[in-house]
Amino acid sequence: MGKKKEKDGPKRKSIKFDVNADIDLTRYLKVYNVQCLNDGSLPCSWLLNAMKNGIEHRKYLRKFIVEPAPSPPEGIPPQPPVLLDTIVNTIRKAHYIHINELVVWDLELQHKTLANISLLIEKGIYPITRLELMDCDILYYSVERLARTFKVSNLTEVNLDYNEFGDEGCSRLCAGCKNNKTIITLSLCYCALTSASGIYLGEIAYNSTIREFYLDGNKIECRGVSDMLRAIAIAAEDEHMKKIEEDRLKALMIAEGALEATDKNVTSQLGTTDASGGETDGAASDTPKKKKKKKKKGKKAKKEPDPPVVGPYIYKLHLAENGIDPYCQGRMEELLTCIGIISRTIMHSSCFCELDLEDNAIGNLAAREIMEALVRRKEGDLPGLKMKTTAEIQKDTFAAIVKLASGLKKKKKKGKKKKKKK
Amino acid sequence: MAVAQSVLLLRKQLAELRRHPVDGFSAGLVDEDNIFKWEVIIIGPADSLYDGGYFKAHLTFPQDYPQRPPKMKFISETWHPNVGVDGSVCISILHEPGDDKYGYETAAERWLPVHTVETIMVSVISMLCDPNDESPANVDAAKQFREDMQKFKKNVARCVRKSQEEL
């Protein structure tokens, strides 16, 4: 503490340097270049730039983004591919233990490579908390290998968007997620899931810490959603009812207690002089302690969030474009069951904070029901819910939903604006 | 003289934007000494496919601005029917003034000296909200936009993610 680089302007005060960051990064780069030559891989340009940047500013590179090089214009011979194996092996060889996020886009990953990544994740020494493998052509049996690592990993967020492994993959993934105690977010957008996946997803929503689901662009449909949420809705309802009962009892107790307290007050007033003297003493000795506490708070600023709880809790549920509509024979009933379950969750779950149903033509009746659920939620004094729904419903229902559920607002938006001004 | 006018005008606009930032984008210079090259960051408009993205673009003004339009080029990767593969933005108000030889646009739709950075940005943001696949700059994107909306969405989503990472 205390030693700050002279160059730091007033704005950059909070930036700290990582001792040895430049050394470790340089070593990584060196090994990586050699490995690339050996494996016949094209170095990933994003990685190289980020490393160089990190060396310059003496900051560890926490996030690895790996993407293929843009395909060369016609006439120029194709370049060798960017290989993920090389990067993973280099992490091992250079003993680069500062990686928190591994993001891979558009690389075709063989089972072998995926197994390699799994081995890396399994090693507790590499604190990888976020894994994103977008559009990597992962097949269902590779998913199984990956899912097996979840139990022994540090992962909190898994994103497998655009890998069309379907229900088979989903079931194997969910088998790996069972009883998981670290993962919070699971994203499976456009993974070709159908209604059969609902039951697996429901199981892990119920029995693990996963509480944010991004499932846009699948075909989970009404039946799948019902399967997924049924148990959760019931659990939420139970809990809510219990809480209401408890509150009622508590209110009763307080009311009774208040009566007793008034009696006590009269008696205790006799001894107040003594007690107050003691209190002031205590207050005086407290003050220095308080100051210390304040200082500490200032340094930490953020309170460590509580560890995630295993249980039937869903915080965020994104189901855009999932064919939740009545456009098929016998689907109307399914839709109503499904919406009924969603409504129950909305009404009773206090932790539910985001629901995205965009691009599902749920129709007026269902929208109405959701609206009523939102009203009930508000009356029940549960925290607000952000919700997105289709616009293809009656105007007043839509307006009411928008008003009751203040719309999905993505984070980040505000802070960044200021930064950019040069 | 013409140079002086453009410099003055651009400086005025920059100062104005700095003082009263407009929602949806922010503007600055690529190089503090060169008033003709601007860097803008466009915030993907809410309720469009580009929601959540931060797209960096460069505006290059000609010496005889505002008689001729600036050129706009996205630095961030963008997948949009009206943005070329190289990032160049193709909207009518950025086209050289005069009549269109193909008769597609009227002179009134093209560049007029009354346009400012702000009006250009407003047009670009509305372009993001509502792609025009009738006169595409990126034919592949336009084709996908018409025929395979899901793939199109996916590509856009990827650009949005990338733009977030790059900031």
TrEMBL record, chain A:
Claim: Transferase is one of the keywords in the record: no
Species this chain originates from: Phallusia mammillata
Top-level taxon: Eukaryota
Protein name: Uncharacterized protein LOC100179002
Biased composition (Basic residues): 289-302
Region (Disordered): 266-307
Zinc-finger recorded as keyword: no
Sorted UniProt keywords: GTPase activation, Leucine-rich repeat, Repeat
Gene: LOC100179002
TrEMBL record, chain B:
UniProt-listed Enzyme Commission number(s): 2.3.2.23
Every UBC core domain range: 5-165
An example Gene Ontology biological process: protein modification by small protein conjugation
Domain of life where this protein originates: Eukaryota
Active-site residues per Swiss-Prot or TrEMBL entry: 90
Family: Belongs to the ubiquitin-conjugating enzyme family.
Name used for this protein in its record: Ubiquitin-conjugating enzyme E2 G1
Species this chain originates from: Phallusia mammillata
